């Protein structure tokens, strides 16, 4: 069997085809209630499948938030597996937002869980935390490269608390965020059109890339930008945060789109409206 195209190339094509929008699948208890679904594993499964049914093949990517499935234990994880399988069948890329990170030997276990071909929990990419050191992520980076999958490493997160850690300056005079971004840039060097080692950079972070010395264009990889919609970011914020790196950005909105459900047509309208907004900010010439 031929090797799959790298994630970065597949994502770049999906963003060209559908616009740079990722819709999060976040079955919050309040949304389950609004959708008249039970707050249990069957509810999160139905919620996820309805989102895939409504938006599969219409957006660049879907991003199930693992936390809302894990809170229902093993049945919740089985529900996540079913949602990922449905998205795969619909031909839509998935980013599993699991934010994993551990010492290298344990990281190998997380890599197998979220990036191995044989794992039903593997999407096309997974989010990782570099808090144990970017070097500890090596097993995930290696397995992602071997399977044509991608990773998004937390760099400048959308929540206000993140700055205290991510803006901190290390012994080499660089901020934590700049250090993480430089590591990704090294790993993505020479990749066309985009590398497969992405970063999470919130759409809400204002001028943090500049103030922390984080060179986003040099990353040469995708930039997952949560914070659109419910967290308050929109066209203006995206353009301001990303500047010259805006062509690399996959903007992400969960509640901002999901609140329109459960009606499939309403979900599609909300996603189309979000896609138009992020496209105007990130690809103004389209
Ligand atoms: O910096 C980050 C990293 C991840 N997230 C996740 O994205 C969604 C955002 O949901 P909204 O409803 O659009 O606010 C959620 O799953 C977060 O865990 C983030 O917000 N910021």
Please, could you describe this protein's structure?
The structure is a single chain. The relative contact order is 0.15. The chain is of the alpha/beta class and 286 residues long. The protein has helices at 7-18, 29-34, 41-55, 66-70, 73-90, 104-115, 138-147, 163-166, 176-188, 208-211, 216-219, 235-242, 255-258, 264-282, and strands at 21-25, 61-64, 93-100, 125-128, 150-156, 197-201, 223-226, 249-253. The protein has an eight-stranded parallel β-barrel with strand order 1-2-3-4-5-6-7-8, surrounded by seven helices. The protein is globular, with a radius of gyration of 18 Å. The model has no long low-confidence stretch (mean pLDDT 97). The chain binds ligand LLZGTKA7. The ligand O=c1ccn([C@@H]2O[C@H](COP(=O)(O)O)[C@@H](O)[C@H]2O)c(=O)[nH]1 is lined by residues 24, 26, 65, 97, 157-159, 200, 202, 226-227, 229-231, 252-256. InterPro entries: Aldolase_TIM, OMPdecase_AS, OMPdecase_type-2, OMPdeCOase_dom, RibuloseP-bd_barrel. It holds the Pfam family OMPdecase. One of its GO terms (molecular function) is orotidine-5'-phosphate decarboxylase activity. The active site is at residue 99.
